[in-house]
């Protein structure tokens, strides 16, 4: 049963490689992040992509958020995060190709816990992408409650893109 | 059950994105690598790594294979395949960053098929990297048969699975 507006996001353990301003190119050691602890009391824009380094995600989805992150944060958003089923090293490397620094938190749900708990995963085995891949979606989370959810119905970026989210802020 | 020297290398289909010399930045159509059909009659070195873009893999493991690829091929290796639990898009991007240029097939085992078939999988869920990843290993497959197998006792280090280890085993 998929998560919906009004629900509380699940408590899950994700990971990310923290940005180090003294060594911006270094790959720091991934840290674990517990969703309830990290997002409590905050307004979060979370957008999910099926795969780092894949065409649609890299060309049509991520760039808009990179461009608009300052605008999004100026509307009272504390954290803008990108999440995928890739591991934290991959998310870190992908984020670096866009020079995100610490403007966008690049999160990993490699264990599939978070996506599965929300019912927002697809089986990618036919394409050899693994059995648990996050769907493409964007969410506005306010103090752990889902206040906007746009799950992409097709292969394009519409309800999960930066403009759609900004219209709701 | 883990494979051993003398075994037939299991038949698994992995995916990879071929390198496009004319347009190296292009994302070309993925191809399937069949570990039985495509290895038949060939001498193949298969290198398993826990994670693309991770420090040990990127600093200590893959680079030596990139720089020594000609030496490796001069010793009769027809195909060098680098595989991890990442998907093939990630492997392709990593290969581009490491300057592989099509000399090594960067294959993804995101379905965990190779890991399960060889017994060389690693559960990295405790560090949030997923339950079916590959450990660090080096296999030489000669016309379908495993003639060399070394598995890193500590997957965060490279001692028996490096390019020099491969050259010494050929």
Automatic annotation (TrEMBL), chain A:
A single BP term in Gene Ontology: hydrogen peroxide catabolic process
Oxidoreductase in keyword set: yes
TM segment ranges: none
Entry GO CC: mitochondrion; peroxisome
CDD domains assigned: PRX5_like
Alphabetized GO MF terms: thioredoxin peroxidase activity
Alphabetical list of SUPFAM superfamilies matching this protein: Thioredoxin-like (SSF52833)
Entry superkingdom: Eukaryota
Protein role: Thiol-specific peroxidase that catalyzes the reduction of hydrogen peroxide and organic hydroperoxides to water and alcohols, respectively. Plays a role in cell protection against oxidative stress by detoxifying peroxides.
Family of this protein: Belongs to the peroxiredoxin family. Prx5 subfamily.
Protein name: Thioredoxin-dependent peroxiredoxin
Organism: Coemansia interrupta
Species lineage: Eukaryota, Fungi, Fungi incertae sedis, Zoopagomycota, Kickxellomycotina
Gene for this chain: AHP1_1
From TrEMBL, chain B:
Keyword set, alphabetical order: Antioxidant, Oxidoreductase, Peroxidase, Redox-active center
Gene3D superfamilies, alphabetized: Glutaredoxin (3.40.30.10)
SUPFAM superfamilies tied to this protein: Thioredoxin-like
Gene Ontology cellular-component terms listed: mitochondrion; peroxisome
Active site as annotated: 57 (cysteine sulfenic acid (-soh) intermediate)
Matches recorded under InterPro entries: PRX5-like (IPR037944), Redoxin (IPR013740), Thioredoxin-like_sf (IPR036249), Thioredoxin_domain (IPR013766)
Pfam families per the UniProt record, alphabetical: Redoxin
Residue span, Thioredoxin domain: 3-170
Claim: Oxidoreductase is one of the keywords in the record: yes
GO terms under biological process: cell redox homeostasis; cellular response to oxidative stress; hydrogen peroxide catabolic process
GO molecular function: thioredoxin peroxidase activity
Role noted for this protein: Thiol-specific peroxidase that catalyzes the reduction of hydrogen peroxide and organic hydroperoxides to water and alcohols, respectively. Plays a role in cell protection against oxidative stress by detoxifying peroxides.
Family assignment from sequence similarity: Belongs to the peroxiredoxin family. Prx5 subfamily.
Listed name of the protein: Thioredoxin-dependent peroxiredoxin
Organism, as annotated: Coemansia interrupta
Gene this protein is translated from: AHP1_2
